Amino acid sequence: MTSDNNIQFLPAPLGLPRVETGAIQFGDDWPGLFIRGDNAHALMISIRKLTELLADHPNPGVANVIREHYRSRSSSALARRQANGN
User: Fold this and answer.
1) Torsion angle (degrees, nearest 10) of CA 16, 22, 26, 32
2) What does DSSP assign to residue 23?
3) What does the domain layout of the chain look like in residue ranges?
């Protein structure tokens, strides 16, 4: 099941009180990274801080990655606002 904000609701795994942050694989699909909501906030703060610290990095490859990160964040935010009619 999928909600309006692209959250996929899955049944809880049998015998587990909760799914922890880490690698997870559903059936024969490729493994992916699951980040629990309570871990996601701290990760977001760390990524933002690293982005700020690396923004003026002398290596052009690092600077390009940072610019692309900001560009994709801006595009995602704009798409969400447009989808919500804002």
Assistant:
1) 170
2) E
3) 22-83
CA atoms within 13 A on the CB side of 77: 6
> Which whole-number Å values give the CA distances from 47 to 31, 38, 53, 54, 76, in the listed order?
22, 15, 10, 10, 17
Q: Is the pLDDT of residue 74 over 70?
A: no
Dist. CA 85–CA 70, nearest whole Å: 23
d(CA 79, CA 18) in angstroms, rounded, equals 31
The letter for the amino acid at 58 is: P
- pTM of the entire predicted model: 0.55
Task: Quick: pLDDT tens for 25-66.
Answer: 988 999 999 999 889 999 889 888 888 888 778 888 887 887
Place of tokens 């760390």: 46
